[in-house]
Design a protein that fits this description.
The chain contains 8 helices and 6 strands; from the N terminus they run ββααααβααβαββα. Helix 4 packs across helix 8. The protein has about 250 residues and is α+β, with helices and mostly antiparallel strands.
Length: about 250
């Protein structure tokens, strides 16, 4: 199917494979050319490119020194990339290798600590302390958040959902991860104001199962093996060919 001829320009065949290559080069923009109308536009573009080629040959542009220098540079760059691709293409990672690495480095793939918490955000420490007194007096945290908090989370009773370390400002994070589930904090100051925090749950993190992270482990090991092969080949070539740094 990909070798089907879709046009002939100045004796040269334009095939389905040329069209596929053009679509792939468009990336996300390829969606703009979906359907029969888009296909016709792309075929027309391929035809136009071939017409430019014919015109360039007819006018001797293929003999221009500037073109020849650019073509040589492109050839050299492409050959280097192809040689590296061929080298790295020989590298494989088996499930057994990946699992062995995983077993030796389980901490690398362990999920980090996370917490679920709610908060009430106000402008002053005095206001926060007054609200905290109301909560201690029987007002539910959720009602207090809906009534007093300036954060949009007030619509959810102050619920911020689950988050991990590094996702909140340091003062807020330090408070949360030093609390216990069900605990309500004293007012905590951050750059945003004063927070009263209620922790719903703390997850200390857990060991990953190999099957759940196998693809990530294989990519990690593949990257290391690529680096090893590249470094070894680099040393081999430096020993084989003359190198002068000036």
């Amino acid at each position: 199917m990909e070798n089907k001829v879709i046009a002939v320009v100045d004796g040269r065949e334009v095939t389905e494979s040329h069209l596929v290559s053009l679509v792939q080069s468009l990336g996300q923009n390829a969606a703009r050319f979906a359907g029969e109308g888009g296909r016709k536009q792309l075929v027309e573009e391929l035809i136009t490119q071939e017409l430019f080629y014919s015109d360039a040959i007819a006018n001797g542009l293929d003999k221009d020194a500037e073109f020849l220098a650019a073509a040589e540079n492109m050839y050299n760059t492409l050959l280097k990339q192809y040689a590296l691709s061929k080298l790295l293409g020989t590298v494989t990672v088996s499930d057994e290798e990946a699992e062995s690495y995983f077993n030796d480095h389980k901490d690398t793939f362990k999920s980090g600590p996370s917490a679920r918490a709610s908060h009430i955000l106000v402008d002053s420490k005095e206001q926060a302390e007054t609200i905290l007194e109301e909560i201690n007096g029987g007002l539910s945290f959720e009602e207090a958040a809906s009534k007093y908090s300036s954060c949009p989370s007030r619509e959810r009773g102050g619920d911020l959902g689950e988050f991990g370390k590094g996702q909140m400002v340091p003062e807020f994070e330090n408070a949360v991860f030093n609390m216990k589930a069900g605990e309500v904090s004293a007012p905590i100051q951050t750059q945003f104001g004063y927070h009263i925090i209620k922790v719903a749950s703390i997850n200390e993190g857990e060991d990953a199962k190999f099957e759940d992270v196998k693809d990530r482990v294989k990519q990690f090991v593949m990257s290391m093996k690529h680096n090893e092969v590249y470094t070894a080949k680099q040393a081999e070539l430096k020993a084989k060919y003359t190198v002068e740094v000036k």
